[in-house]
Design brief:
By secondary structure, this protein is α/β, with parallel strands linked by helices. The protein folds into three domains: about 55 residues, Alpha-Beta Plaits; about 80 residues, 2-Layer Sandwich (GMP Synthetase, Chain A, domain 3); about 170 residues, Rossmann fold. Helices cover about 25% and strands about 30% of the residues. Strands 13-12-11-14-15-17-16 form a seven-stranded mixed beta sheet, sandwiched between helices. Strand 2 and strand 3 form a beta hairpin. The radius of gyration is 22 Å and the shape is globular. Bound molecules: S-adenosylmethionine. The site of S-adenosylmethionine has 22 residues, from helix 5, strand 12 and helix 7.
Length: about 325
Amino acid sequence: MRSSCLAVPRPRAERLRQWLLERGLLRTDLAIRRDEQFVYLPVRGDVDVEETRPLEMEFEEREREPRWQEALAGVLPDGASLSSFDVVGDIAILRLPSEMESYKREVGRAILSAQKSIRVVCNDRGVKDHYRVRDLEVIAGEQRTETTHREHGIAMTLDVSQVYFSPRLATERRRVADQVQPGETVIDMFAGVAPFSLVIAAVSRPSQVYAIDVNPVAVRYARLNVQRNRLQEHVTVMEGDARQVLPSLPPADHIVMNLPHSAQEFFSLAVDRAGVIHYYDILEPEKIGERLDWLRSQAEEKGRQATVRETRTVGMYSPRQVKLGVDVVID
Ligand SMILES: C[S@@+](CC[C@H](N)C(=O)[O-])C[C@H]1O[C@@H](n2cnc3c(N)ncnc32)[C@H](O)[C@@H]1O
């Protein structure tokens, strides 16, 4: 079948694919094509992205779409589509493009009817404040935003409209947990409802995880989740600004810093207490080297040495920016 597409140099293709997918611009009904230099991403209509070539070419059709996509095809106007959504517990969280807003009730009902495990459908209108809370509207199903999400054998209750939570970080949480040894001490500086702390405590049996957050609602859920998962002996939840709380804690073998938009502000504070720092940031890939040098220089200013053990892309933030995960060993 003939379709518009973007020809993108191979090294940039995966990031652009994810970005197009998240915005419903990628045609998931057609199979992506490749040659030695380029990847050809089939797109809906005219999509203009810097440093890519718009073309038209033949694509093979792909296997059948998931049921919810089939259900949506019946309610959306020609050319509109939604390629993915997050699921937290039994709540689906969509990011509807503005041109699909007027169909939100139909979209919500179609998802409810096609996916029986979903009881609530919310539209996500963006992140609101420094608690990193999303501005959500329930568009179908039960009128509630509290749910229980299961990950790595841990049950986490949370209100998706009052606290930050991303199910996409499940692999990352496990990756960090696997680096912690039994008996070690961990500080989770920006803990939210404590997913990192809980997974680390359950998987690696550290002697103590200190989970700090400034959002009182997140702290309430974190305490509830620690109790529900019977991890009181291993996790201590602390309410407050990490700037004030951290200096009162003992040195830690690991510090988790999942506040990517402002982690730089807190890095030198963490250097005083670590250990290994699991640091997250959002930046353009070409600036990664510069940022790693900056992390090393911050440690040097404190008379310490920072060695980067591993860097990885945890996800896409925008077509140009990635969410970067870095494990930094402080000596
Ligand atoms: C991106 S969320 C991460 C939450 C959690 N680590 C997770 O993976 O779900 C960042 C969290 O940092 C908290 N936060 C923001 N500024 C803070 C500060 N100065 N001290 C402690 N927590 C803070 C927010 O309330 C939010 O829950």
